[in-house]
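Input:
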Amino acid sequence: MSPDFSRRKLITTGIAAAAGVAGLGVAARLAQRYGLVPPDHGGIYGLGETLTYASQRLLTRHSLAREFSRSQISKPPFANEIPPLNEAYKRLQAGGFADWRLSINGMVARPASFSLDQLKSYPSQSQITMVQCEEGWSYIAEWIGVPLSPVLQAVEVHPQARYVVYFSIDPDWWESIDMSDALHPQTFLAYGMNGADLPVGNGAPLRLRVARQLGYKSVKYITHLTVTDSLKGFGKGLGSAAPEGGYAWYAGI
Amino acid sequence: MSRVRATCYHSCVGDSACIPSAASAVPTTTVTSRHSALVRVTHWITTLCFLALLVSGVEIVISHPRFYWGETGNVLTPPLFKLPIPASRNLVPSGYGYVLPDQNGWSRYLHFQAAWVVVFTGLLYAIFGLVTGHLRQNLLPHGADLSWRELLRSIASHLHFERPSEAEAWSYNVLQRLSYLFVIFVLFPLVIWTGLAMSPAFVSAFPATVNVLGGQQSARTLHFFVSLSLVLFLLVHVAMVWLAGFWSRMRAMITGRAATPMERT
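Output:
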């Protein structure tokens, strides 16, 4: 161990450490710029969440959720337990959902409010995909509806928009997704299931179906969408009700 | 320092009278390193991550302690088997009259965070092991040890709870080598694969990873069994460390120093 050797080692270590810190700084700036940092990145689990979201965003930007054959549709159809529905819902249900509206505002050129019939006037599509719950169970169903993308086109989303926040008629239930998922061809405003109207237990009359994420992102009974460039102003600023209840915002895992 | 350590590995492997010959290269004669710093650090990071993954994994299973085969499974479909434990969700007919508190939120955050850390740690270890020859020298069994006779002899000596020889304080025996290689290169990759095969976003990009396993619920069931195998390894590993001399083995894995024959006498 000559003094020369240890000095050289010290300098090399110093340079490596400086490069490491600078590299991390650049990585963080780039990640922020390319939308690779989830809104719930703070706290002790922020590292894992950011790695999961960033790596999956890079890997799955255009990938499609697996679709199944009609014979693989779960029989009997499954519906998770639902919380007791409120008075506003019951009134609309009594009227056969004729007065159900989906309003869209925020960073759009033409804020609008759609009736179910207006949504159904868009070409309808269907997908046979799997709903996976974070608890471990799953089922396959056919989802019928209109992809969110043409509806967002109709209201003319601003180019700087980054997220779509969506709200259920149940005020405790709201979620958000990034534009990559919002414009994804399998993200549906679903009004039908397995060849019929959407059952109440599965979110009648309107559910946002997000095929590449866990079930809790597919919010039932949706009435309102807001397009935004920042999630800071919503709730506690963590992105949605899920992280406020202790669950990850990004549920593609 | 590292040169001395590397020489020490060479001279000690399978050598029962293991007084480090390379020690004469430096003035102090007590330089005896059993485990390199990188092996020790990655060992304990992996231990911490594994415990975090185990606790959080148990919590996640409690929310639905039923297992299925194929693509889908829920309370309306027959399970492959169910664990005889209460559940943390009232949706599951567990047979118990009560529901455990729901701990899924933080458990999932912790599970995936620990998974990331252990994956990076494992990669670092594997690259280090290949570059320095650690895997080849210390984990790959010697050709002569791989005969059935040698294997049976080693198994018999384990079954008789024979205390390990002096040489084994310095080098892994053939059963250790085979089980460590199996855990590192079979069980860990399998548990990562079956975990990723449950991710709806990951399989949208790589559908074959779940299709070859027989479906998403099959992946979940396999993930459970691979995890169970890792827990079994942990129990045997700790038991063997205990039988071989808990404090000397712990000291070797924490400080890197092992008791030499000279120190013992």
